Amino acid sequence: MDDTQKKDPPQKTAGESKPAQSGPASPAAERFIVSSSPHLLTEENIPKIMYSVIYALLPTVLVSVYFYGLRALVLVLVCVVSCVATEYLIQRFRERTVTVFDGSAIITGMLLALTLPPGFPLKGAFLGSVFAMAVGKHFFGGLGYNIFNPALLGRAFLQATYPVLITTWAEPFSGPAGVDAVSAATPLALMKFEGQVVPHLNLFFGNVAGSLGETSALAILIGGLYLRYLGYINWRLPLGYLASMVFFSYLFWLYDPLSYADPLFHILAGGAMLGAWFMVTDYVTTPVTPMGQWIFVICAGLLAVIIRLFGGLPEGVMYSILLMNATVPLLNKWTKPRVFGEVS
Amino acid sequence: MKEPSLKDTSLGMMLVLSSTAIIVGAVLAGFFQLVSAKIEANRLEEERRAIFAVIEGIECDECYEVITKDIEVDGKVKPFRIFRGHDMEGNTVGYSFIAEGPGFSAKIRMMVGLNVVPDTLSGLRVVEQIETPGLGDKITKEKFYSQFKGLSVKPEIEYVKNRKPEKANQIQAVTGATISSRAVVNAINKNIKVVLKALEEEEFKQSQIEEKF
Amino acid sequence: MAKRTITEEFKKGLWAENAVLRLLLGMCPALAVTNSAINGLVMGLASTFVVVCSSTMVSTIRRLVPRQVRIPTYIVIIAGFVTLADLFLKAQFPAISKALGPYVPLIVVNCMIMSRAEFFASKHPLKPSMADALGTGLGFTGVLVVLGSIREILGFGSIFDIVIMTEEAFTPWVIMILPPGAFLSLGLMIGIINHFTELRKKRSGI
């Protein structure tokens, strides 16, 4: 448990002082300032944490380039550039401080690209990025104020806008994943519609059809563990989410192993890994209290399993996180620790 | 304010409200008399157009007849209408009937055409649906309809996803709108058995009439 | 409130006190049926017919109706005109009537119409009431047509069923025809208009 105490302070610094001081912290250190807590001065600031997340995402990007060719890289670049450009334009237009280089827009772009199929049209990727940045982030007031994970909101928008294109997948190594790539079904779709289960090892290393970032569990794990090592994410959120999915899918598997896939399949396939390590751990859109975080991950895991097994769509990670995002203000309020001696 | 005293009593309120209701009701009743014939004609015209779309070879505007049979559907005996299309000489060119079933949003109603030998369908037209625009409502597009032309109904219609149908009794579901496609297939499957049985009886009767000549 | 001329009563509903954009009334039909321009137009005109007729009627009998039963009386009148409009559409334009589905009967509960009856027609003489209702109705129609056009262009690539962008050149945004598309476009529309109104106020104020 000393583990948590060590981790919480930097997280709070990052989460709560974000809107107030987004530039380098040096001028603040030179003179006395009056501010609300936390008063802890650490090395961490937004750009430092954000760029660490970007490094953590690089293995996943590289793996997707390995499997799907340069088209994957182009897709990532288009998303990143359009996210950064949208943020810049909006901040200029609203006459706010331009903070495009704090890295958060780059992360949103990368995450959005990683949730898209490799052959997704670039025009569509651009549209999704603009939506994620404009509606998902800046309509709510910018970094630190958004209710929903911007990248997931962008992906949900694209899901509703291009329902056919976003479910057209390509087989790995099928050349320049463009118009004539061999189309294939994702492991989750195979499970849902055909009753086939893809071998776990393929899922782990990523040799399956799917979105850029949902193929290789290994690459995501490397990035996630790197962030955990730096102490920028706590263990509760990703492991809790995965454990919740394992638990609930285990119940169904136990009930009928023939029609429901095994728990390991569920956390290795689809967006579960990416969601657990990079979206559930988002500072802004998840609860800050330990109790709230537990409720968040358990409910999100349950929702993901229910949507996967009984919903119309094969994948439920995106909607499970978005739905739980909406409950975060309430969770934070309900689970607020009582001040010692407080009488309600 | 001529009668402030009466207006503000309970009697006054009742009088005003009920007379408003009576006047409005009378106006509506009159207007309904005026347009009901037109509305009924619209309905028939739509039905006629759907019949002509699903049965091939009807040669004149009046070349179809309605056979009403009491058929048991879902455990209830109801009058069920089967339409028989014919050419100028009166030879049967095909049959059609209306099938209904729950869709994604609400009930879907469709006109289903059967060939003379009722093993295959001759066409399909959805007459009533409120499926999701742009997705589910693709079941009203020619591309979807054309799959039902010549489709075998034996043993049952099946649907496949994201790949080309292989058997004579298979159609490809609309991508992203499986539920709507399935609703159409289920509705046809549910109704076709009773229709086939009814047609057998009808043919039997017909052949008996012909033997007399 | 300063006394306004009949023209002013008519004009205010078009823009300054537009039902959808300014008063946020009648949101249900504005969001629900505007997935194509023609649906928006028909819905707008049907609502205009109902609001003009019911305001006229309410204004005429405003002195006869006891205060306590005024709301039920207005609703009966409005429902009568809505049913008239519904039957008329069913008889003359069966295809459009089918496309609008239950939303024509639902004009009964459109707050825009009730608000005109309650706040204006029941307190004003015949002519201003008619002008006010007509302006409100046409303003409502205008917004519905614009909203329907935006959604039809982006969602189907056509406007008033005339194809302007083929499927090859432009992949339709399915979301625009779905409910989220309605919320997004209406929200953006109101947001943009508010922004420019504020801007103009600021400029003229300084």
Task: Give me a quick take on this structure.
The complex is a heterotrimer of chains A (344), B (213) and C (206). In chain B, 42% of the residues lie in helices and 25% in strands.
What report would you give on this structure?
The complex is a heterotrimer of chains A (344), B (213) and C (206). Chain A is built from 16 helices and two strands. By secondary structure, chain A is mostly helical. The radius of gyration of chain A is 20 Å and the shape is globular. Chain B has one domain. The model of chain B has no long low-confidence stretch (mean pLDDT 83). By secondary structure, chain C is mainly alpha-helical. Chain C is 67% helix and 2% strand. In chain C, strands 1-2 form a two-stranded antiparallel ribbon. The two termini of chain C are 26 Å apart. Classes of the chains: A mainly alpha (344), B alpha+beta (213), C mainly alpha (206). Chains in contact: A-B, A-C, B-C. At the A-C interface, helix 6 and helix 7 of A face loops of C.
Return the domain count of chain A.
Answer: 1
Chain pair forming the biggest interface: B-C, 27 and 31 residues
Low-confidence stretches of chain C: none
Name the structural class of chain C: mainly alpha
Mean pLDDT of chain A: 82
The percent of residues in helical segments of chain C reads 55-70%
What does the main sheet of chain C amount to? 2 strands, antiparallel
Shape of chain A: globular
Keyword list:
heterotrimer; B: about 210 residues; alpha+beta; five-stranded antiparallel sheet; two-stranded parallel sheet; 4 helices; 7 strands; about 25% strand; C: about 210 residues; mainly alpha; two-stranded antiparallel ribbon; 8 helices; 2 strands
What layout of secondary structure does this protein have?
The complex is a heterotrimer of chains A (344), B (213) and C (206).
Chain A: H1 2-16, H2 26-30, H3 46-68, H4 70-93, H5 104-114, H6 122-137, H7 150-161, E1 169-170, E2 183-184, H8 187-194, H9 200-205, H10 217-230, H11 236-255, H12 263-268, H13 272-279, H14 290-310, H15 317-325, H16 328-334
Helix pairs in contact in A: 3-4, 3-5, 3-10, 4-5, 4-6, 5-6, 5-7, 6-7, 7-15, 10-13, 11-13, 11-14, 14-15, 14-16
Chain B: H1 4-7, H2 10-54, E1 64-73, E2 76-86, E3 92-102, E4 107-114, E5 121-128, H3 142-146, E6 158-160, E7 170-172, H4 178-212
Parallel strand pairs in B: 6-7
Antiparallel strand pairs in B: 1-2, 2-3, 3-4, 4-5
Chain C: H1 6-14, H2 27-32, H3 37-60, H4 70-92, H5 94-100, H6 111-121, H7 126-156, E1 158-159, E2 162-163, H8 179-205
Helix pairs in contact in C: 1-7, 3-4, 3-6, 3-7, 4-5, 4-6, 6-7
